[in-house]
Structure formats: C-alpha cells, structure tokens
Amino acid sequence: MGLSFLAPMLLGGAALMAVPVVLHMMMRQKPAKREFPALRFLKARVIANRRRLRLNHLLLLLARMAALAVLALAMARPVLRNAGWLADAEGPVAAVLVFDTAPRMELREANRTRLEQAVTLARKLFDKLPATSKVAIIDTAGSPVAFAPSMAAAAARLDRLVVATPSTTLATAVSEGLRLVETSELARRELYVFTDCSRGGLASMSPMAEGDVPADTSILWIDVGATAVTNCGLEAVDLSADRLSAGTPLVVTAVTSRSGPAITRGVAVEMLGADGRYTRRAEKPVEWKPDVTGEVSFEITGLAPGTQQGRVVIVGSDDLPADDARAFTVDVGAPSRVLVAASAPADRTGMFVVQAIAPAVLQKAGRARFDAQVVDAGNLDATAWDGYDAMVLIDPPPLADHTWEQLREWVATGRGLVVWLGPRAGTAERFNTEAGRQLLGGGLVRVWRTPGDANYLAPTALDHPMLAAFRRVGDAVPWQDFPVERHWEFAPNEQERSATAIVSYRNGLPAILEHRVGEGTVLVVTTPASQAADDADAWNMLATGFEPWPFVILANEMLLHAIDNADDRNITAGETAVVHVARGDVNSVFVRTPAGDEVPVAVDPRRGTVTVTDTRVTGNYILRSGGQVGGFAKGFSATLDPAATDFARLAPEPLAAILGPGHRLARTEADLVRDVALGRVGAELFGWLILVAACAMAIDWMLANRFYAPLDDQSAPQTVSGAGGMHAAPLASDQAVPNEVPA
Amino acid sequence: MARAVEEYLKPEVVRQISRLDLRAQFIVRGFLQGLHSSPYQGFSVEFSEHRKYTLGDDPKDIDWRIFAKTDKHYVKQFHAETNITGYLVIDVSGSMAYTYRQELTKLDYSISLAAALCWMMIHQQDPCGLMLFDDKVRHSLPARSRRSQIAQVLSLLAKARPSGRTDIASSLIQVAGMLRHRSLVMVFSDLLADPQPIRDALLRLRHRGHDVILFHVLDEAEAKFPFAGMVEFTEPESRDKLIIDADAARKGYLAEVEAFREEYKKTCFQSRIDYVPIDTSMQFDTALVSYLQSRKNRF
Among partner residues B218, B226, B242, which is closest to A741 by beta-carbon distance? Predict the structure, then answer.
C-alpha cells in the first residue's frame, strides 16, 4: 500500500493550520484595559468555567486546524494504492485494452474465434468500467494509439476489431499501451491485454520486469487461448528458386504441422492463371501426425516465361483457416548475363566466382540464375559489354584511364560492377588513377597482413539489403572459418560521393564497399576470390575453405545487388515490396491485391521501381500495365509470418516468466470480474478527505455554537451565527480564552 | 411640559448644575412638579400645601389664618401629622468613584440623590442627618430639621471624596450604634462586598427599630455590561485583574448581577427593608418615589 499525491505542491496549504494559532496569539496580546469595581461578578462565573473554557477552546482550535490541514491534504489529491476496501469502484478509470489481432486469433473453439472471445470478455469489462472512464483500444494491426473520445466510441471501436496481419508485435502494443495509460491524468490506470498466450504472440516478448509496469498502473492479462484445437497448418513454403530459367522445374516445399489427432488430408499446389483463377497443378495426401512437423514437396514443371504465381493449400477446412494457404511468386525467364573479367589465366582465376554464381551443374540443366561469360581482363577493351547486365572484375591489374572511364559510363547506365581486388593490382600508386578512383569511390592505400586466422569478414549489422540472405542465420555464419590473411586497405575519396563500407573485417578495416555511379552500382571487395587453395600466397580462404557456402551466397547476393533488379517476389505480409519495371514506357502500374482491389502506383522514374507499401493482405499481388501483348506484368506474394499463425500455447512456466512476477492472469469471466475488483486497488482519497474536512467543520460549527451561543440580550454582539460561525467565531472564540487571573 | 419635567430628573442634566443646593432643589422641584400629573399624586398627602378655595371644596378645610392675613380663602389641603428623623448613610469608598460612560459617578449620583432627599426632608420639617463611610464611618452630622441643616449637609456632601477600601457591614453596625432614636436610615452603596455580613448589619439596623431604605447604586456599565472584545478589568480597590472576552462573559455576568440583586431583594423583603436597585443612567425620581413610598408606609 502506498500513498502518492497528484498535486504535492498544494500540500503547502497545510501551513494554513498556523493561521488560527497565529490569530489566537495575536489577538490575545492586546486586551483593552478597564477599571471595573464589579469584578466579583465576573470572577464568580468565569473562574468557575475557566478550565472548561480552555478545554473547549483547545478543542475548537484543534478542529479548525484539522479542517484546514485536511482541506490542504485533499487539495493535494492523495492517491492510496492497494487500498482494498477504500477503493472507489465508481471513480473514473484510464483503461487501455490491448488486443492481439494476429490471424491466429481466428482460431475457433466452441464455434467462437479467439478474437470473438476476447471481445465478449471486453464487453463484460466495459460493464465494470465507470461511465466517465477513458478507454483506449489498441490492436496489433497498427491502429492509432489514443484514448477514444467517449465510452460509446470505444465500444464501437471494440465492435470493429477484426483479425489482420500484424504490423506490430504484442510486446510493442503493450509498451504503447503502457505509455498511453501513463499520459492519463486519472489516478486509476489499468491495462488489459487480451492474448491467446501462444508461442507466436508471447514467445518473442521480453519478460516483463517489475520496473516495466509503473507503480500506479495495474496490468491484467486475459487469456483467451484455445485448449482443444484440431488444426492442420502450413508453417512455411520454400521455393527452389524465385527466379527460374525457362524450362526449369519449380520445387515447392511446404512445412506442415498438426494440432490434434492424426489425420490424412491432402495438400495441393495451385497456379494462378491469366483469368485470375487458380488451377490445381499437384496434390498429395499427407499423413498429419499430432505435434509433428513434416514436409511435403511438389515439382511444378512447364512454367511459361514471365511472372508465375501460385499457392499451396490444405484441402478441406479446420479451426484456423489463416494457415491453410500460402502464396508464392516465381519469375521464369532468361538468366542475367554476367561478364566475368579475370586475370590470365581467366578460366582459372575466375573459376570460383563463376562456380558460385553459375554452377556448371545448374548451367547444364538450364537452371542457373546467371549466364556467366569469362574473359581475360587484359582483353577487356576488345569485348562488347552492352549485352551484359553486370561485370565481375577478378583481381584486376592497373587499368588504363580510358578503360576506367568506359566502365564508368557503362555502369552509369544502370549496370552492376563487382571488383575483387587482389595482388595483381601491384602497387597503390600504379593502380590509383583519377579515373579509377572516380569509378571505385576511393583508392588503394596498402596491403594489410594478418598471419593465421585472426582476421576474417565480420559483418556487424545485417541491415543492408545485400546481406538480407544472412539475416535468417545471423551470428551462425562461420566467417571465422574463412580467414583473410591479406587485404587491401581501401580509402574512400574525401569528396561527397564516395564509397561506403558495407562489411568490415574483424580488424575494423572495410572489406566490401559500395559506390553508386549514375544508375549503376559498384561493389569493391578488398580481397580476391581467385586464388587456389594450394597457392602459398593466397590472400584468403573465402572460396577455398571447407564448405564455403557463405562465399557462394555473398557472391550471388553481391551480384544481385549490383544488378539491382532483385525484385521482392515473396515477402512477409506487411513489409514493403519493391518491383523493378525497367521499362521507360511505363509510368505507372495497377496493383491488384488479393482482395480484388486495383490500386494505381507510380513508377519511380529514377530507379525504375514500383513500391507497394500496403501488403497486409496475404496472397498474390499482380502488377500490370498495358495489355496482354507488349504490356508489363509482374507480381509478388505476401505470406504470413509463421508467428502470426503459431497458436501453440506456452507452457505455464515460460508463460509466467514472460508475464513477470506478480502478474494477474484471468481466463474466465468470473476470473476477470474478480481480478478487476482486485485490480481496482488505487483510490483517490479526495472524496474521503473532503468528507473528513466537512466533519471537522461540522464539529467546529457545533462547538462554536455550543460554546458561544447567541446572547438573549439583543444589544449584545453576536458571536456565532449560523453557517457563518466558522468565519465569525475564530476571533471571538480565540479571544475568549482567559489567560491568567492574577491572585 | 411633561417632557421638560423628565428632563430635570436626568442625571446628565443635573450634572450641569454645579452647586449642590441648586442641584437638590432642581431635582426636587422637578420631581414635585411631575407628581401633579403622575399617578403618584396620592403620596402628596404628606406635603403641606395651600390653594385657592374653589366651589365644591369642603369649607372646613379653609385655612382661616391665611384668610386673616391675606383676606383670601385658601384651602389647607394637607397637614404633616408627625416628623421622621432621616439619616443619609453614603458609601464613599473607592469603588463609588467609578463610571464608565455616564456623567455622574456612583458617588456623584448618590450625593445628588441624597441632597435632594435632604432638601425634601428639611422642607417637610423632618430632621435629616448625614453619615459618610468607607471601611468605617468617616463623617457624620446629627439630624436637624432647621433650614441651616441643608447647608451643612450639602457642604459635607460637596467635600466628600471617594477613597479607600470599603467595609459596609462594620460601617452599618457602627451607624446602628450611633443612632439613639428610631430613624429612617437611607443607605447609598454599591454593596460590592461580601453580601452576608451586610445583610446581617442591615438586619441589626432593623432590629433596633430603624426603617431602612437601601439604595443599591450601580454604574450603568456595572448593570448592563456594555463591554466588547478582550478586556483587562481591574478592581479599583483591591487592584485585582482579570482578562476576559467581554462578549462571551456578558451573559454570565448579567445573570450573576441579577442573582445578586434578587438575593438582596429577597432578604430585604423578609426584613421589611426597602431595597431600591438603581443605576446611574436612571432618573432620580425612582429614588425619590421609593423614599416617599417608605415614608407613607410608616403612617
């Protein structure tokens, strides 16, 4: 139980307690002096009553001081926490109701979704809220975080709650709710969190600590999770590639999970046709075993060139429809042409990069992402570059100025250039020319040597788009297994447009730098990818280490980033999708959403891209411009984050750990009513104190009237009269205290 | 005319007359003049008066001696049948010098009243004496009925100065010892002392056969207690002090004074003593009427 004050400055008003005392002291010091022979009559009456009068006046003084003190205390608006029976259940409440509206809240139990259950309980809660309360409804779909103008508006908002793709996590919504409720000036602040206590909703949440919830705010968790569920779900869908060469089959792998008893249900792949209808291309019966994650794969062949969209669906229906279908998009077409310019012997020095971006097996099968052509870097000037989308310079020697300038002009048209610097660069003085610095965004300084395996690539953050592929594994990438013994120190130009580091070595020096040149991108790697494992002078083991998959991914992602047409084909719902148009005759496209709406979106003329931000509806989005023939057509798919449909209940221990110590969790309506009653633990004492002050004034009034009843003699001044007694009496009564009677 | 008569009897008017003999005459003449139109006219049987004979008067009431001297018929309307010896006993202690907002102190008031009574008595051929006391009898004049007695009484009264503490009881006992014949003893005092000895002393006077009129003279402030706010009161004789809220104490004080008077009134009634409570704001006729009532009761 704690006491706090809403206006502690007003406690200074308690100093007014001194006023009656000061008045008493001041007034007692100046009696008029009179001779009076009939003193015996005064003595006879007054001396007899002197003690009683002193006691009376002391009581009166105390009553007035108490009234002033209690008034000052009331003005300071003290609030008593955990006051139990003192709590004023009818006082207004600042209540923030946080709802998890993720798709898993559509899970049905007893023919009622989790959200419907939450709304039902919330209506019961509304009945318990005083009429003048301030209520806010917050959901995870990103609705405005603010108090509703009235209870009726809040109730209407409650009725409009729907399941939607989450734009924030429940933890974020709770934090926003706490911040919002703290802004209220009401003394009683309550936060209610309606959650299904699922792994998807709470597992990623940091455990609530005692300091996370302010002392004057009570938080109540309401568990609306289902306990008996039968559901088949698709956790994820993996594609063999989202950019296929024509004729390459697409392998679709779906990850399945089951809640409830074992069952056999079919899983199918449906492709979206030009008429907007899905055509089932494959279907397999699947044995769904309880609480076991399985996989089912499909190979889809005969995909026509262009953007192809489809979905994996579970045949039939179950308790949660949101995880019964997952959409995907794949581009089918010719691979990007890449010119690999390597030092002689070019085939050997360029082998690692070529095998990384266009493995021979895939090339032979026609499924390679890139069509790589290897040339000798010395014959670069004699090669026609126009038909290529990107160029990879592997360990280039110092180039002539005109070659640098030609490259610069070529890149500026929107091509990509990846430069793996190595020992062929010779010396920094020879390699660094003005034309070269302008293209690369900087120049070489010196070669750094770090013997052993102390130095390696060490990306500190994976927020660059080029590193997006590594985000899924994060710190698990074994960069330390691929040491870099030597590398160039690359100093960006000191002008405004210079290269910026994307990835650094462990010693802090830049490993990969990016420089935008016109519409194109130049990526510089300060160590080569051309030396064999048996080369004693090899600078690194990036490509020659054991299972160099990080190098393969890095080489591919660098090239994709440099080409800058890495369209967002399969995104998580709610994220922003960027699709390259790369056609000068298309200024805008129509985006057809899975819901059937068509929205025009302008093409960014500088980057030639279309950006779609509203992707909260899951399914396939189609981007079109022009007609069927000669027109532009692409698309992307938005799928739910697996957590959005992960309704598996947390075990009691982890749940208690996440909700924090002393948490209150209600499940039924009875629990809710009980916990709300217990939660109304803060009571503003203003009303009580005003009552006490009124009592003190009434006592004062009664005492004053009792002690100083009006005289029968009309000529005598009135001492106390009616309600004015409080104001008229103090001086008279305080003066009336006989101080001393000399012998 | 009646209003003018009342004016004569107001202390503040009388105060303007400095000479005590004139003041006494003023009071008595005003009083007598007022009596003619007052319901107390019946008391005037004690006064000797002649008036012209008018038709309807009893011829046997014609004063033939006046007819012999003046050759006019005057009716001898009243006769004084006997004489009564009166003693004016006045308290001149320090407390009698008090007034709060009146023109006359209690002593001044008492002296004026006593002078008027003396004047009336002498003019009715009644012997009149005077005694002044505080804690004992300080001055005394034996009773005489000749005219010069007025001057002596008034002279002594004019010289009276209030001082000292009072001892009314022993003074009255002393007075009782000084009186040889049955007399009318008129006591003027504020009686601000222990009441029981005073009552005993008054009873002793009565037991000796004296008639007693007790003029209890209080200042108007003592009777009505007009004070307000915090007041430090000092008793002039004992110098006792008391700080008190006058407003709060008024009711109790007045009740106490009333009880005090009632007690005296009760005791005096039982002893056939005329008790006349007066204060210095009252007209003199109250005292004079009391005297006449007492005198009438004697015959």
Answer: B242
